[in-house]
Write a structure and sequence with these properties.
152 residues
Length: 152
């Protein structure tokens, strides 16, 4: 049985909590285990934070993000839709300094790196001026070692 829930949130960091609550509820409905639930929450929170801080930033205080979550069998699909500047998190560069000491690392890119590793499937489309980023976590799939996730 598929079950959809949708929130329209202002593009502010205070919107992370209702988005997290939605994700937690949908993960529980899908029967995701704690690890898969964590993966889903991590991916959605990092992507949503990126849209809020970098997509809209202070230039678009009226920005909104649509968070649509669907449960089907043991799978949760979350789609984030926004009209911020066009940005594809799937093809964004990977951090090149992950092996460097923390003090020597450049700021940035780590959240997207974590989101890509946490999702079982991460996809992006730009449709009629809207960024559509989709995160899928499937409870039927075993936890895959980092670096071998499918991207769609």
């Amino acid at each position: 049985m598929a079950h959809d829930r949708t929130l329209t949130l202002p593009a502010v960091l205070d919107s992370l909590e209702p988005a997290n609550a939605l994700v937690r509820d949908q993960a529980a409905e899908a029967g995701l285990d704690p690890q898969k639930t964590y993966q889903l929450r991590l991916a959605v929170e990092e992507l949503l934070t990126n849209v809020i801080k970098h997509g809209y930033g202070t230039a678009r205080p009226d920005g909104q993000v649509l968070v649509d979550a669907q449960v089907s069998d043991h799978r949760v699909t979350v789609r984030l839709s926004d009209t911020a500047a066009r940005f594809d998190p799937v093809t964004a560069p990977e951090p090149t300094d992950l092996d460097s000491p923390l003090q020597q690392r450049r700021i940035g890119q780590l959240g997207l790196y974590l989101a890509r590793r946490a999702a079982d499937i991460l996809s992006y489309e730009y449709v009629n001026g809207t960024n559509e980023t989709t995160v899928v976590v499937d409870g039927a799939l075993a936890t895959v070692p980092q670096g071998s996730r499918r991207k769609g």
